[in-house]
Design goal:
The protein has a single domain, classed as Beta Barrel (Porin). Mean pLDDT is 90; it is low at 12-18. The protein has an eight-stranded antiparallel barrel with strand order 1-2-3-4-5-6-7-8. It starts with a helix and ends with a strand. A hairpin with a 4-residue loop joins β3 and β4. It has one helix spanning 2-17; strands spanning 22-29, 33-41, 46-58, 63-79, 83-103, 109-132, 137-150, 156-169. The chain is elongated, with a radius of gyration of 22 Å. The protein is 9% helix and 71% strand. It has 170 residues and is mostly beta strands.
Length: 170
């Protein structure tokens, strides 16, 4: 019985030891993408975060398909029990495609399909803060600079970027 009690205690301590190293939630970021997010604590200094979404729609007028995939590396700068300041480096890929029929001047369907497509790659760096509101629920916000390039025509822009998120740690 003593061995079983020790085994149960060791199991509980190991579960608690790994507690709150993973976070599942929602985020929106011009650095590392938007959608459902998953964050994993590598060690006391580094955390990695992935995010993404997929969305499709088909109506009689058009058909669209969008998705986003992103990743972010965070380096902890200062951490207390309820607050964490970090620097970040993020990368994301955005793809949005819409197919719609074309019409002539009289409004008759020509049978041709018009394609509208956006494919962008974004890279950003910045700083952020994460605040624990309840025992396992936290919010975060970050800001910095981003580079965005169209993979269709090569246009690019450099500017400010930002992000927000809500997560549940387990």
């Amino acid at each position: 019985m003593k061995n079983i009690s020790i085994a149960v205690l060791l199991t509980l301590f190991s579960i608690v030891g790994y507690a709150q190293e993973q976070t599942f939630g929602f985020s929106g970021s011009t650095f590392s993408g938007s959608g459902i997010s998953y964050k994993y604590k590598l060690d006391e200094r580094y955390e990695i975060k992935t995010s993404g979404f997929i969305f499709g729609r088909k109506t009689s007028a058009e058909e669209s398909f969008s998705y986003n995939l992103g990743a972010e590396v965070q380096r902890n700068l200062h951490q207390t029990y309820l607050t964490r300041f970090y620097s970040l480096l993020g990368l994301s890929y955005w793809d949005d495609k819409t197919l719609s029929p074309t019409y002539d001047n009289l409004g008759s369907l020509t049978g041709l399909i018009s394609i509208s497509r956006t494919r962008d790659l974004q890279l950003g760096t910045g700083i952020g803060v994460e605040v624990t509101l309840l025992e396992n629920i936290s919010i975060n916000t970050d800001a910095g600079f981003k580079y965005q390039k169209s993979l269709i025509n090569g246009d690019y822009q450099i500017g400010f970027g930002f992000g927000v998120g809500l997560g549940y740690a387990f």
